[in-house]
Write a structure and sequence with these properties.
alpha+beta, Immunoglobulin-like, 5-stranded antiparallel β-sheet, 7 helices, 17 strands
Length: 325
Amino acid sequence: MPSACHVFGFPETIRLVFCIHAQHSYAFPAVLRPFRKSATHQTLKSSHKKNIANRTFYNIRINSVNMGLVLEWDAPQNHTENITYRAEYRSLVSSYLVVCWNTTAQSCDFTSHLNQYGVYNFQVRAERKGDTSHWMVTKQFVMDKHTTLGPPGVTLVSRGADIEVSIKDPVLRISEFKDIYSHATFNITYWKEGQEEKAKRTNDTQLRKVVLALEPWTRYCVQVWAYTLRFSKHSQPSNVTCESTGNDRPWVVALVMAVAVALLALAFWYCYWVVHFLRPKDKLPEHFTELLLDPLCSSILAMQSSPQPEKVYHKVSIMPGGAET
C-alpha cells in the first residue's frame, strides 16, 4: 500500500479502496479501456497462450461514402478461432451504444443509427469465452465533413453538333445531397475520344444541364466532379460517358425530310390519278364487255379464213351535156 494513502487519515478499508481506484484510472488511457476480471484471474490468464486481453487490433478504419458508415478492422494477430466482436458508438451527448455484438464479421454498419450532422466516436473489441481484448477507439468522426462523396450521375444527349450534359447529385444514404451541401457546383471535363490529354474543362457550374458546343460528326467523352463549398469537398469522379455529335445545321436535315415527305405525297397523288383515269367509275355496257371478253365466234373466223371475192369494175364514161350519142 503506498504511503500516500495514509496522509489523508482515512480508515484502512477506505484507503484500500482509494488506492486501488487510483491505480486503475492511471494505468489505462481513455483510448484503451480494458475489461478486467479479478487480479488473481488476470495473473492466471496472463500465462495462458490463448489469452487475448493484451492483444490489440490492427488497421481499424472507418469506411464512409455518401453518409453511409461501416467500421472495419483486422483480427488480433495469431487469434482467429472462436473470436467474436462487439462494436459500439457514441455521440457528443450520449454514452456508448452497442450496434454489433457476438458477431464474427470484421465490420459493423452504423449507418441507420447516425445523423447527417453528428459527431461520433466508435470502438470495438474482441471477445472469446469470457476473455476480452482492449477497446480500440477511433478518432472523432464528423459525418458531413469526413464522409466521402460518391460520383454524380451523368447522361449525355446529342443535339446536332451540341451535346447536352444532364447531371444528377450523388445519392446519400442519409438525407438529401442538396439539403446538406446546398452550394454545390460541378466541374465538367470533356475531350475527343482517344485524346484525353487534350481535355477541356468547365468549372464551377451550378446548372444540372449544360450544353457543350462541339465539332460535328465527332465522338466526345465526358467526366464530372461535384464540389461543395461546405468543407471544400470534392466528390469521386463520375464514370466516363461518351456520345457522338451530328450535323451542325439540324435545320438542313429538317428541310430535307420535309421535301422528301412532300415528294412522296406528290408521287402518291399522281399514281392515284393514273389509276383513276385507266379505271373510270362509269362501266361499259354489259354486251360490250362480253364481246370484248368472249373469244371470236365461228362466223367471223370463217370470214377471216375464206378467200376474198373477186372485185368487178365497170367502166363509166362521163359525157359533156348536149352532146348527141
